[in-house]
Amino acid sequence: MYKQLIRPIFFSFDPEKIHHFTFSLIKLTSKIPGLQAVFRSLYVVNDKKLERNLFGLTFKNPVGLAAGFDKNAVLYNELANFGFGFIEIGTVTPKGQAGNPKKRLFRLKDDKGIINRMGFNNEGVEAAITQLKKNKGQLVIGGNIGKNTATKPEDYTKDYLTCFNALHPYVDYFVLNVSCPNVGSHEKLNDKDYLLELIGAVQKANKTFEKQKPIVLKIAPDLNEGQLDEIIELINETNLDGVIASNTSVDRTGLKASESMLNAIGNGGLSGQPIKDKSTKVIQYLATKSNKAFPIIGVGGIHSANDALEKINAGADLVQVYTGFIYEGPRLVKSINKALLKTT
Fold first, then answer.
1. pLDDT at 228
2. Annotated active-site positions, please?
3. Domains of the chain: which residue ranges?
4. Which fold has domain 2-343?
């Protein structure tokens, strides 16, 4: 019903406006007595065989919702009813910020993709904490953290630490988002020396807490083999807990969308089906070259159960969906979990 009826209606409206409308709709319907139970019966697959133990955490199943969907942690309790094993909130910055000017979110329908240049729009870390205090403990929650756009280069690490320290009691793991193409100073955030500084500072802060939280790095899908080798070296040097592969891409190669359409859209990060193979190759390279020395969360272009299985076969321990969830609907999560049960 989603793809035949609901999606055509949703896709006839502005992507960002329909995103906010969908949030309100899920919130509203979830307050109707008995409807959350209906959602769970339709979409949740409960089976011990789906459990994954990673980073010292137990995931009910290996299918998560990537960061960017529930930026301000306002919907994770309701989204748990759609079958996810974990949800990543954010990207959260110390202060709330509006992000880049609108229009900044674009569908590539023929490609089953999305281009966005949102620019870390969010309400800030304190607003996220207010929402996370309502956590019903239904699934694992990740905290994706970044810097404010206006922050000076010498204060980047301070921004990450502000978010890390504030969110620490409320999330189960952390993601250092240093690979988003829609924020300023992208170059410095990918410099190995700076990453060593940032990771070291966050790990030092982690040790001040009684219970330390896993920390992973989210990387771009556009890295070449030399850069991926540097990522492997970085993880070995810092003992980082893992990697999310991958973020959105700036590459426009092979798209069905016309050049005039892409020029009209302008810059931004590409997600969805067009980056499926690119992200899978990154996963496979990291897993093979490192001899599976660290966990990998695979994300990028998962629109079917087979897409998810490709990521897992390539070396991913967990997978995340976002654009595929928008295009294929909530049954995507169930179909992946059902397929995984058949392989066990």
1. 96
2. 180
3. 2-343
4. TIM Barrel (3.20.20)
